[in-house]
């Protein structure tokens, strides 16, 4: 993959599989990603998947998001200014484009002399599937994202 080479990373089967999976399944957890890439690769350790996720995040090929109370999720959509909406019940996560535009897109009343370069916004609610199923809102945040 050219993206791996351009980022200075070796092209390996686990890296290719992880990037391909996340391209089709954004906002996946490390656990879900590891389970998915084992199918085409046969065997790959969970630690190897974590190493791929860390290396690709550090190289700017992936974005790691960490909604409060949920496991970290990863996506290929990087380099733009977007936010997320998370279902309180099932953890389903979706992108929301920023309506303001350029980073950091929000200005705090006091930046405490920090040089700001990004604002992260997470919207919370119930996804359409949970509303349709009549599932009550929960604040436990213990369930992983559905794939």
Features:
6 strands; three-stranded mixed sheet; 5 helices; three-stranded antiparallel sheet; Dna Ligase, domain 1; disordered C terminus; 16% strand; Arc Repressor Mutant, subunit A; 147 residues; alpha+beta
Percent range for helical residues? 25-40%
Task: State the end-to-end distance.
Answer: 25 Å
Mean pLDDT: 87
Shape: flat
CATH architecture group name of the largest domain: Orthogonal Bundle
Number of strands: 6
Q: What are the low-pLDDT stretches, counting only 5+ consecutive residues below 50?
A: 140-147
Summarize this entry quickly.
The chain is α+β, with helices and mostly antiparallel strands.
Commentary on this structure:
This protein is α+β, with helices and mostly antiparallel strands and 147 residues long. It has two domains: 64 residues, Winged helix-like DNA-binding domain superfamily/Winged helix DNA-binding domain (Arc Repressor Mutant, subunit A, Orthogonal Bundle); 55 residues, Ferric-uptake regulator, C-terminal dimerisarion domain (Dna Ligase, domain 1, 2-Layer Sandwich), CATH 3.30.1490. It is built from five helices and six strands. The strands form two sheets. The chain has a three-stranded antiparallel sheet with strand order 1-3-2. The longest helix is centred in the middle third of the chain and has 13 residues. The protein is flat, with a radius of gyration of 17 Å. The C terminus is likely disordered.
Secondary structure topology:
Layout: H1 2-6, H2 13-24, E1 28-29, H3 30-41, H4 46-58, E2 63-65, E3 73-75, E4 82-87, E5 93-97, E6 122-125, H5 128-132
Parallel strand pairs: 4-6
Antiparallel strand pairs: 1-3, 2-3, 4-5
């Amino acid at each position: 993959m050219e993206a791996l080479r351009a980022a200075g990373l070796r092209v390996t089967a686990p890296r290719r599989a992880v990037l391909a999976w996340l391209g089709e399944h954004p906002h996946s957890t490390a656990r879900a990603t590891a389970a998915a890439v084992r199918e085409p690769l046969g065997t790959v350790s969970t630690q190897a998947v974590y190493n791929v996720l860390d290396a690709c995040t550090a190289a700017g090929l992936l974005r790691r998001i960490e909604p409060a109370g949920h496991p970290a999720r990863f996506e290929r959509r990087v380099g733009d200014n977007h936010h997320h909406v998370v279902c309180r019940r099932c953890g389903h996560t979706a992108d929301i484009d920023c309506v303001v535009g350029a980073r950091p897109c929000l200005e705090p009343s006091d930046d405490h002399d920090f040089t700001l370069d990004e604002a992260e916004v997470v919207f919370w609610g119930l996804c359409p599937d949970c509303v349709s199923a009549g599932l009550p809102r929960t604040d436990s945040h213990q369930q992983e994202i559905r794939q």
